[in-house]
Protein: diacylglycerol cholinephosphotransferase
Organism: Hebeloma cylindrosporum
Amino acid sequence: MGYIPQHSLENLKKYSYKGVDKSLLSRYVLNPFWTWFVTLWPLSVAPNTITLTGLTIVILNFFTLLYYDPMYLTEKNGAEAPPHWVYYTWGIGLFLYQSLDAIDGKQARRTGMAGPLGEMFDHGCDALNTTIECILASRALGLGRSWWTVASQIATLANFYLTTWEEYHTGQLYLGYFSGPVEGILMIVGIYLVTGYYGPQFWDQKIFTFLHIAHLPLINKIPNLPLNESFMVFGGFGLGVNILQSYLNVRRATLVKKISPTRPLLHLFPFLFTALVQIAWLSHPRFNNSYIIDSAAFVPFLCAWGLQFAHMVGRMILAHVTSTPFPVWDWVWVWSIAGAMDANLPMIGMSPLIQKSSKNTTIFVWVTLVVSFLAYARFVSLVIYDITNYLGIACFRVMKKDAEGVWRNATPDTKRS
């Protein structure tokens, strides 16, 4: 019942991480910091422990949103914004996540624990962080529960999917001069810090008015969007650039392998299909004019979506490290498909079978969240079980190979280096 076919387990031993990072900020500023930061961690700390620590910090940030703004789950824009100091903790937490996410690979090389398990664990945590930060950043920008938040979710997940898709077809993780894991995260950290100082209302200012250029010729012909919406438009352009860059990288790889450069493009349709399913569910025509986006179901809806997405990209990266076929279909989307179809039955003159009221819709969305969580938890546990048992390693314990090539527990008095 595992996710790795028996005949593909041998490929785990052949896997080696390959990556390219062209970011100047990463090379000249962050990487020297990360190289120093990793030395603060004893060699007895497993790389996956560092990764999980970073994710835990982000999850705590998410819980502070729910604690200090509980009405965000029931009121459209929340009863009131969280205290300003909370946004500072979000910025610090995200920066720590980025730093811990960057040094887990360095720790893996220091301890000799680099391998497919670390790649899977790191990727899984990144997938979960993507949705959490989307919700937090949208709240910090004052977007609340809106289609702009949905657009942000789609854009961030699309970027992540593209990166995973590209890594599968090229065999390496490619980060350009401007990438989400480096510059993108630091931009969001900056948003948190600005919001902490000025408050979410800062982002409601018109961009050209804020820049004092609204009176200039031609500029006054362009829509004077608020700062928060302008940031979303900027993100859309960034997504377009990433799509082009990823395609060019994949195209070069396919030409080297002498396969059709159009075939990998078909593997983009799973994400497009699932995004359309979620949009169809969100925009369903309701006879009582109650939409998920305006209800207490919106945040759990995004979380369920994020968990289902994490399951999908998790299987993609698993296919990469085990050299197995690209997973086109993922069964976890069946629940969302059912929800979208049920909610849209009024389009053919029928009443929803399940979502007959806002209460029923909210219950159904929460059940979807629970099912999505259990499905992803099952995926994670089975993959960890298969990899650790086959390779003879542990997930959260540093081990060393002996003279016979067998993994053993590292000595407890291992010193730092």
Notes: The chain is about 60% helix and 5% strand.
